[in-house]
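Quick check before the chapter quiz. The format below is the same one you will see on the exam, so make sure you can read both the input and the output lines.
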Amino acid sequence: MQFIWNTASPEETIALAQKIGARLHPGDLIAYRGDLGAGKTTFTRGLTLGMGLGDCVTSPTFALVHDYGGKLIHFDMYRIADENELETTGFYDYPQDECVFAVEWSENIVGALPAHTMFLTIERTGDEARRITLEGDERFADLGT
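Here is the expected output.
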């Protein structure tokens, strides 16, 4: 199923992500797609709020991974050329069935993503406006499109 939302500000993007985060459960993997500065880290901030983890998100660009309480693992694969380099990121060190993975620049490791991956695309439609597309399951249907 595909869901599409339009947000007009970072605050609206966070609010949408918060609603999505409240519906996530261990084993979920969200693979982000979007240009540099599209709002992937902003979206993750909303996920942590929705998951009850607070507003604790920082960009993982230089650290490659941030672990938010063992409940959300936030990866940045920008510097990873392909799935063969995943060993260096800690991707396989986290028990995926026990936490949620949020993966920025997922297109760099698409061959290593599990079949149940949800794809989230964030596109700029204005200075602060975004079009957010989630390929997921029916649990997000009542959030509107």
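If your answer matched, good. The two ends are 12 Å apart (CA to CA).
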